[in-house]
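Hey, can you fold this one?
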Amino acid sequence: MKIKRMAIMLTASVVVFGGVLGFVQFKQMMIKQYFATMPKPVIPVTVEPAKAEQWRDSVQAVGTLAAVNGVDISASNSGLVTDIAFQSGQPVKKGQMLLRLDSDVEKASLRSAQAEADLARISANRQRQLVRSDAVSQAAVDKAEAELKVKEAQVASLRAQIDKKQVHAPFDGVLGVRKVDLGQFIQSGEAIVNLQDLSVMLADFSLSQRDLELASVGRPIRMTTDSWPGQVFDGNIAAIEPKVDSKTGMVLAQARFPNAEGKLRPGMFARIEILRDTTAEVVTVPVEAVSYNLHGDAVFIVEDGAEGPQAARQVVQLGERKDGRVVILKGLHAGAQVVTTGQLKLEHGSKVQVAGTDPLKQAAKAE
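Sure. Predicted structure:
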């Protein structure tokens, strides 16, 4: 009896587990069938034809901007600040007085030295008169004149010290932020304010020795910066280092760029472009049309498929980039309809709808 009951339970268990397993397999089969027969989604995209252009090749470099004149202004003597004659960010002219230090002690010493010099001058004049009547020797006259020169030198030295108590702008430019306060005691060489001449900017950059043919003084070059996207600054090469760095094979060069509008500032990073003399016909596409991948860069193009327009992934070889476009060296011909937006959702063979077209007309055309 127990054996019969156990057999019935085992049989029931097999039936139940078999039914569950069969249901799971049936469910998976139906899911696969659903996805196999599910229509592919139509992805909206925008396209632009690949262009054949006359492209002027160039050499690219990265540089750092510096003012044609720039310095941290400081006093050559120590002293107490008694007058500040400038404001932060103020434009100044060469020779304009910026700051004055206390010079009372030097002025008092100057008055004493001036009195001694006057006395020495009177004494020297008297000795010159007496020597004519042989009342004194020529040696006494020479001594008096030497003492006069010493006193006059002391006066000149004190005047120079008083002059150095005033700080003047060494060239035309724009001041930075003031770094001292009224009544502050500053040491010799301590920075007072930064002064930059922004009328002309210098860009230091490096070129490979392979491009030395382009490195000639006076050659026109172009520059762009992140601070002013889309704006191109024109300049020329001003100087070239005569020595090639044996470790890197690079040559240091410097370019000059007029900066009448004051848009360029020292310390900016800049992209330098030196144009070659020759041009070539190339195929270009917008930079945003390229999908970058470790296995190869590619673009999606729109082709006519059996069910309407569809996307095809095309592996390409890229060349130089400039002004928002990139050269296609291999893998694409001029006139191909390249997807510019929407490619992130695409895969090879995806159905697409081009923006600005009627999907019904697309379907009718496909039929």
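The two ends are 73 Å apart (CA to CA). Let me know if you want another pass with a different chain boundary.
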